[in-house]
Structures are given as structure tokens and as C-alpha cells.
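Entry for the shared binder. Reason: the reviewer on the internal report wants the predicted structure included alongside the sequence.
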Amino acid sequence: LINQIPTSNLTAYEFYQKGNDELLKYLENRTNKEALERAEDLYRYALEYDSTFANAYTKLGRVHVAKHFYRDYFSEDFMDSLLILKDIALSYDEQLAEAYLLQAFYYYANGNPEEALISCDLALDFNPNYSDVLIRKGYILTRVFNDYVKGIESYEKAIARHKGDDLAELLGFVGRAYLDVGFIEKAKHYNQEVFELTGDSSHYYSKMAWLELCVGNSEQANKYREIAYRIDSTNFMGDFYQSFEGQRDEAEHEYEKYIEYLNRTGKLPLQYAYRIAYALWNAGRIEEADHYFKEQIKYSEESIRLGRSIASTLVAHYDLAAVYAFLGDSLNAYHYLDEISSRNKLQLWLISFINNDPLFDSLRDEERFQNIVQDMEVKYQAEHERVRKWLEENDML
């Protein structure tokens, strides 16, 4: 594998490398659509000079995800082009780890995390040091299966093998994993490491805001969020923090900017439509709020039906429970809360949000609600203790 030459055509290889440079520019700035278009053109030029260049097909898959993820999100054939490109790549190089990583993303995006993990392992069979695969595997293990021992192990292997420029992103994943399972100081440590690598203070304070919100300190979370927003006014997370603090006027103003941003980029507020709705509702803009509440219900219910990733991670279930609780539909609210509590392992953010989110105020004093929350807390604590024991055994605490 080391001696295998991806293409013998130097012109094709040059176009491919230039395509990689443009793709990296886009990944560093997701609004740089021109770089994405250039990357696609360059990969296609590479294939004009060598139609058997397997790596160029997998990179076209990366471009396809970036261009069409939101546009095709609710289609029945969502991301099917990835499988076609993967098959073409493997027809020319059956041991190409990149192709199996593309397959892993397809399965994850379509709500089949078990097959995604199998695809990751296939990729690692051919390239055991492929850090991108180890990152994807760690992400699925932590975010979907809530197995933080195996997930953090995969992340640590990725760190040891990592040779790219995106180490900060990887360290951010590790920090998020420690936060989700309740190791706050370790999460802060990784947030600090990311900041030292990037110097991005707005991103740092956003991460610290999220951390404080996850531990139930909404006042400090909002202070950090305000600092992040002053540094970078495109940092749209206002109502996610302000709704917990009751700062309604600011939330309305910031979400108006966020709506403009969505219109400009074509992204869907898959996880935030109901936060927009809540801000508008509190501002007395009831009809507009109703529109976004309905949008959230559609986004989340369709995501669950189609098996999208926000369903695998229980985000869609949480959002539906919150919306229905706020709208006074306790039957549906409890349906989704029961779905969440039926899982064997749960994350800190879920526990903290359900305990503090004002959208659940109508249910908070009910015995059934309190029993569900207590059950969730027990399951969260069990995984926390399992990870703590593993960390101590490996001298990682």
C-alpha cells in the first residue's frame, strides 16, 4: 500500500492537489462557496487526465456532501451519490481507505451507525493510521452510542497519528466528549488547547459558554456568549443562552440576524427553529413564532422517520419534547421524553437542559416528569463512573 501510486499522470495529480487546497479553503470558511466550486472543477479536470484516479472520486464525494447536504436533507435518496462514487473508486482501488470513510459517512448520515462503524473498521484494515477514520469512529461511539471509553480511545489514537492542519478540530471533539460525560476540568483543558492552537477567542468563549450551559450555569454561559458575540457578531447562538436567562429583547434581535444568515447560506435551522420561535413568541410575534414551531416539528419528525443523524443522537427527540411541552401537548412531549429515557446511556447536556430549559416549565412540577429526569440522571451517572474508573486505571485523571 505504501508503494502504490495513486496516479501515474502528473497533470491529473497536480489538478487533484490543487483541488485539495481549494477544498481546505472551503472547510476553513464554509461561506467560501467559490473555493468549493473550484475544488469540484479541479477534481473533474484530474479525472479527465486519468479516469481511473480513485482518490479524485472520493474527494468529489466530499464536495457533494458540502454542496447538497441541506438541499437534499429530506430526500429519500439522501447522499446516495456517495455510494456511487465510493463504488467507482473501489472498482479502481479496492483497498482505498478513503472510499470506506465515505461509506461510513453515508451510513451515519442515514441513521445506520452500526454499518458506519463497520465501514470505519474496513478503512482501518487498509490504513490503521488513518486519523480521519479514527475521528469519525470516535464521534459515532461518543455521540450515538455514548460509549465514552471506546470513543475517547479512538480519539486518542487519532491524536497520536494526526499529521494534518486540523488538530484543533480533533481536540475540540475530545473536549466535547469529556464534557458530555461530565469531566469538566478535562473539557476546559482541551478548550484551552484549541485556543492556544488557533488563537480564535470567539470560538473559545462560545465553547466555554456551551460548557457552562451544560453544567447548569446559564448566567455565566450568557456572559461568555456575550464576549464571543462582541468579538464576532456572526456568532449566532443568542437565544440558546438568553432563553435560559430570560433576556428576550436581545434574543429577538440576534435571531433576526440569524434568519438573514440562513437565507444567505441555504442552511436549515434543523436544531434551532424552535429557539427562533421562542424568541419571536416572547416578543409577541405569535404568527411568526407559530411558523418556526411548525418548522421544528417537521424537521425533527422527518429526521426521525428518515433516520437522519440528529435522530441517532437524540437531538430531534429533545427538540420535539421541548416544543410540545411549550405548546401544551403533554402527550407528545412525554412520548419523546420516554424515547430519550429508554436509552441506556445519556449525556450531561440532556440532563442539564431538561432540568433548566424554560420550555419544559409546564411539566416541571409533575411527578411523571420528575421520575423521567431522575431515571436519566441515574443512567448518566453510571456512564460517568465507568469512564472515571477507566481514566484512573490508565492514569488519565
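Summary line for the report: The two ends are 38 Å apart (CA to CA).
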